[in-house]
Amino acid sequence: MSTQEDIGTNDTLIGSLLESISEVIRSLEFLQSETGSFLECACYFYRVSVVLMEIQRGESSVICPTDVVESLSESIDAAKYLVEMSQESNGLESTNDLTSIEAGFQGVVKQMGETLQSIPEAIIDEEEYIGVVVQSLSNEMQNANIGDGSKSEILQYVQQKISERQTQELVSEQIETDLYPTDPELSYASYMSESQSEILDIPSQSTTVSSSQIKYGTQSESQSQISEIPDIPSQSTYVSSIQREYGTQSESQSQMSEIQDIPSQSTYVSSIQRKQGTQSDSQSQMSEIPDISSQSTNVSSRQRKYGTLSESLSMLPQVTQFMEPPYQAFICPLTKEIMEDPVTTETGVTCERQAVTEWFGKFGDSDEISCPVTGQKLTTGLSPNLVLKTIIEEWKVRNEAARIKVAHAALSLGGSESMVIDALRDLNMTCEGKEYNKVKVREAGIIQLLDRYLTYRSKDVRYELLQLLKTLADEDTDEGKEMIVNTMTMSCVIKFLVSSHQTVRHAALVLLLELSKSQHACEKIGNATGAIFMLVTSKYNEESDAFASETADQILRNLEKFPHNIKQMAESGLLEPLLIHLAEGIEEMQVVMAAYLVEIDIGHEKKINVAEKASPALVRLVQSENIEARRAAFKALAHISLYHPNKQILVEVGIIKIMVEEIFTKRMFSDLMNSRNEAATILANILESGVEHETFEVNTTGHTLGSDYFVYSIIQMLKNSSPDDLNIDLIRILLSLSKSPRAMATIVSVIKETDASFAMIELINNPHEELGVGALKLLIALTPFIGHTLSERLCKTRGQPENLIQCPAEANQITERHAVSAKLLAKLPHQNLTLNLALVNESIVSEILHAIHLIQRSGTRTSRYATDFLEGLVGILVRFTTTLYESQMMYLAKNHDLTSVFADLLMKTSSDEVQRLSATGLENLSSTTMTLSRPPQVRNTKFMGSLSMPRSFSLRSSKKKQVETCAIHRGVCSAKATFCLVEANAVTKLLACLQSDKAEVVESALSAICTLLDDKVEVEKSLNMLSGMNAVELIINAVKEHKKESLLQKAFWMIDKFLIRGGQRYAFGISQDRMLSGMLVSAFHRGDGNTRQMAENILRRLDKMPSFSVYMTEKSDMSNPVGP
After folding, report:
1. Nearest alpha-carbon partner for 47 in 4, 109, 125
2. Could you tell me which of 718, 719, 697, 715 has the C-alpha nearest to residue 706?
3. Distance between CA atoms of 933 and 1018, rounded to whole angstroms?
4. CB neighbours (10 Å) of residue 372?
5. End-to-end alpha-carbon separation of the chain, Å?
6. Distance CA 1079, CA 296 (A)
7. Cα separation of 664 and 222, whole Å?
8. DSSP alpha helices (H): ranges in 585-702?
9. Given the DSSP bridges, would you call strands 350-352 and 342-344 parallel, antiparallel or unpaired?
């Protein structure tokens, strides 16, 4: 038989076989509703028919062996028998019968796979890609698992039918492992229904190393450390030109929409009809399959997406040969693209549904509609080609799996920048909208590979990487998001937010937005260093980047799922989420937000806003029955009340009345959470802010904070040994009330009535530092009113008053307690002899002087309380000078030379109070100088003359020793023994104090100088001394500077002294000062009685007034000058 005759016979056999396969497929279509296993069989049969058609139209002149075709025909006959058995049962077959039929189909499929494997290599030598497909399909069918594979009579019959002809011949010695198995558990359609799969491992096979392998095998050492390339099957044969054509891909890639799982149906026209010329024109155009090589030039972007690789990826060794090119049957004749929803017209032409529907729409009359391919008249009836659709989807899944493998290899190698970018883009395209592919990417370990590319310097790589991660994260479940945040270094992603490239910044924000939809990811993002701070910064940067601002705002809203993130937002300056959740959230969230409000550091500019929005919610929590909520609310309110400008806001929400109720009204929760302590703290904070307490009612009976009821209740709680923490706040409340004279009078009255002074003095012995300090401050405030009572009772208290004087070893160790203890002793009445005698102790005074010297010597290296402590110590020394009539006090003052001590303190301190106290001490000491100063004693010369001895036996010098006397005090003086200001050189220092800007200091210095103008001393000599020191000018300047009444009286008295005793020597200079004259006139008209009197005297002596005065005639004591 000639070759042409053999080809014709072979075509006839194949055509007949294709018709039988088409018949079986149509039959299985109607059985699909009964069992899902028939769809898989139909898919296998359809793929076999496509392979037969490709072989039939191949370039090879060798025909397919007849025994192969016959074996396939026998298998199809067995399949027909199984279909008939299933149809005869009419859907009423038992489970056992169904299992037997499925087992029979499994035998048919496996036998057909073995038959395909026996096709000679000569058939496919010049069509190498067909060989890859045949081998893959053969292996897949031999490993098919349909049903449970149990034995049955039907299965035995089928095996008997198909075992008559078996071919054991292999295609080649080297067997290619199937890269694209169609296991039902891994098929695309099954994934859509079950949403789970496993990525197939592709075993490796040793081959001869190609030139491209050598190229990639000589990488640098750094690249050799990159993670291992996954196993990829290899072939010793070269990559044919047609495979290379399918290995190229343009940059533009379109996204394929997701396909749903639907039952299969097909209409197929066999190639045998084409060969015999018995088909219609439309059928011939439909079935014609052009050269594979020509297909590559017509491949659209959609085809390239599934069938080809980019140039850089195609260079990878032993991977591109596994990309399965699209079959011509997949291509729509209208769009020239791979079909997604194929439908078949009445003429047998299969097209894309949308394309053919648009074609029909071009015709105005339905009777004019013609086939877009054949031109034949037809109706709008379309039959879905579900089998072809399923085949296309499974082909896509196989190619996408291969693309993932290729990208994995490229990323593992870490080759050129272009290769990395292509791999990232390819993965992004493959996974876009494909949940199944995202699962395969995750399970292939690609996400772990991506982490190292976060540090890649190329902005293009970073952008594509972020785009891919966003695609992988974009799914219904949180599994992908969680894997990304657990695997990737989130801090690197956060750094992209400050990238100089806007595209990278935006891509990073879009990725974070997608990740933030998962609560677990929200926690991870929040824990990344600086993440929330950078997002808040982007949110507030709306002017420069509106998109980044809006996206960052959305991310932050998503991050609110995790409470700790809200805290970080507040710490970063975004307080709104915290305040909103506090005001509107569930109670559990409100408790957490209230706790955060205490922990974060809020700027002063935002504290008022926080108080306005948070206070109403916190007050509601305080009044709830939830102990934890109440505790958190109390602490938050205490924190808010520390900022004094918030006082009005807190008052307006009614917090004062609520807190008073908590303090005085016992509730069932109070003992469990100490609400009294918290309420007292809040109330003390508000009162310390200066709120007008006398106007606020604390109960329904109208009592105010300054009322007897409130004060009495507070003092009773202090007396009843309340907890230390509560006592501290109660004392703070009393101290705040004491600033009001009216409330202070009430406090003093209640203390006297309840005899609470003992209880308050006992508190200063409390070891609790803050409580002891508070008690001391309260006693200092009470000193002007009940000072003598406190002094007496202090002396009767165990360990007091000496324990109040505790001098630390170093100046920087001085505490507040040291300072207020010394100040209390300085403030208690100075003339209280009982207290003074209790303090007189040689060691105590020495300790005080040592502490003063220590503070003066330390300079700036002191405690913040050093000045207060120094003022208290000097005040204690001054109190000793007020009772010098007592011998112990006199001895103490002389022994420690207090005159020199006070004189030195005038110049060696920066404290005005120390200067005032030192001047007062000098005044007290100088007042006793005339009493202590004595004229020098004169010896009795007559008695000594009777005991005269020869000159040669005289033991004394012949010259008499002269004893100097004080010209002012007319006796022997010294700073130590008589407290003489002149001898102590204190006068100059006192005059210097007249230049102080503090009226109290000037007044005390004038009082001390006035002791030198007393009538008991030599006034004229004092005036001469003071005049020589320019005292008159200094006094006049002091009068001009200060308007204090008592100071003016002392200054006018001294000026009058100069005019009385000095006469015209001082009158002319004083009268020339016009400002002084004006002040004298003003004092004459507006001053009190003594001031008017002194002003009149001076004006009269300056001839500014007549020699008589109406004021003088009203005085009974006109002749006596008024002293200071």
Report:
1. 109
2. 697
3. 13
4. 21
5. 155
6. 113
7. 76
8. 587-599, 604-622, 627-641, 647-652, 655-664, 670-673, 675-688
9. antiparallel
Joined tokens for residue 771: 């409580």
**822/835 Cα distance (integer angstroms):** 13
Q: Summarize the confidence of residues 255-266 as an average pLDDT.
A: 32
* pLDDT one-digit tens code per residue, 765-799: 889 999 999 999 999 999 999 999 999 999 998 88
231, two tokens: 């196993």
Strand partners, 352: 342
Q: What is the pTM of this model?
A: 0.64
Dist CA 215 CA 47 (whole Å)? 38
Q: Is the pLDDT of residue 996 over 90?
A: yes
Closest by CA to 285, choosing from 296, 274, 276, is 274
- The SS3 of residue 430 is helix
CA angle 1077, 1083, 1087 (to 5 degrees): 175
3 state DSSP class of 343: strand
Q: Name the residue with higher pLDDT: 706 or 235.
A: 706
Please check whether residue 344 is in contact with residue 302, taking contact to mean a CB–CB distance below 8 angstroms.
no
Rg of the chain (C-alpha set):
55
Q: Kind and range of the H or E element at 342? A: strand 342-344
Cα distances (Å, whole numbers) of residue 980 to 272, 929, 969, 972, 976? 143, 6, 8, 10, 8
Alpha carbon distance 94, 91 (integer Å): 9
Window from 245-259, 316-330, 547-561, 754-768 with minimum mean pLDDT: 245-259
Q: Which of 3, 7, 2 is nearest to 276 (CA)?
A: 7
Starting at the edge strand found earlier in the chain, the sheet holding 350-352 runs 350-352, 342-344, 383-384
Torsions phi, psi for 344 (to 5 deg): -115, 135
Beta carbons within 8 Å of 78's beta carbon, 6+ residues apart: 104, 107, 108, 157, 158, 161, 162
Least confident of 12-21, 565-574, 594-603: 12-21
**Considering only 33-42, 211-220, 940-949, 1030-1039, which range has the smallest mean pLDDT?**
211-220
> To which residue do tokens 């030599």 refer?
1018
The token pair at 721 is: 């040994």
Work out the mean pLDDT of the chain and round it to a whole number.
78
Place of tokens 């799922």: 561
CA 426 from centre of chain: 37
Residue 720 half-sphere exposure, CB side, CA atoms within 13 Å? 9
Contacts (Cβ under 8 Å, ≥6 apart) of 914: 870, 871, 874, 905
Would the pLDDT of 728 be above 90? yes
Q: Hey, what amino acid is at 1104?
A: K
Q: d(Cα 25, Cα 83) in Å, to the nearest integer? A: 10
Does residue 338 sit in helix, strand or coil? strand
Give exposure, 178-196, as e/b (b: 16+ Cβ within 10 Å).
bbbbbebebbbbbbbeeee
CA distance 744 to 381: 102
Phi and psi angles of residue 984, each rounded to the nearest 5 degrees, phi first: -85, 0
**Type of residue found at 94:** S
The answer to whether residues 1069 and 1060 touch, using CB atoms and an 8 Å cutoff, is no
